[in-house]
Amino acid sequence: MQLGHHFEEGTTLDRFIFETTQAHPEATGQFATLLQQVSLAARMVSSRVNRAGLAGMLGGTGEMNVQGEFVQKLDEYANDTFKKALEHPGVIAALASEEDAKPFYPPERFRSGRYVFCMDPLDGSSNIDVNATIGTIFAIFRRKSEIGGPASMDDILRPGKEMIAAGYVIYGSGTIMVLTTGRGVHGFTLDPTVGEFFLSHPDIKLKPTARTYSVNEGYAATWDPRLRAWVESKKEPSATWSARYIGSLVADFHRNLLKGGIFLYPATKKNPEGKLRILYEAFPLAFLAEAAGGAATDGKNRILDLCPDDLHARTPLFIGNKELVDEVTALLAE
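^ thats the sequence. predicted structure below, dont judge the formating
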């Protein structure tokens, strides 16, 4: 299924989904329904984020998730909202979430779903209480197991290149959903007065190169010395580079997608396997980056060639403009 890129700004997301899926006679309607339910959940989360303080949603729940991270109230709300929105229409066979130790499988009566949905329901949730930008990241696979039967981990743990769609929703000064099915990346901005997403960023393309890097330099002493030297070289006045770091993966990626640059989350001595989750952080953003003309690696391998062996497997990540990603990857491969 390919989402087209011939639409004008102002096209509603519903119309965009309907007309692009109508162009595929083999479509059953499930994929369109899936994206419409993602849109519904995103609008619900956006509304709750925008009035988090008034709705008593700031702060933590007092619990810790499978990642060893403290669960925020909005984490829990976003996780439950997306699961409920996707369970009942019968479009998913399985759902994997950062917040859950195990996959979620819909009840037997909803097992006709053709898709597997993997998500970080609220990326950057440590920024909630300071009103910084946060977001939802998701990847969509077509199930491998027989439709109507139970799904399994084989439907979930697969190479990223088997994805059929990916996207994210960013909750900032505005709410924007960015989508791709591998050809063309499109951004839709939510108009809260009518409760609808409208096409605002058609056919997003990463420029061939840029001179901006995004990385948490607080860990620089624990990086590979070659990477540390590369970052230091960008600080020379003659280099004319800029550093931009928000501290929320989805926000940093979104800025670089629109403005150009490279995001780096390298391995450290404490986390030699990296920190970002392959399945629902690295995979979907890599799919988006490549569809926009960029690249994503773990410092050695293309991200989409990886195959996680665990639901919450991690990886280093270098993502953004292809020329910059290739430069860093070649440096670390020496």
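The two ends are 39 Å apart (CA to CA).
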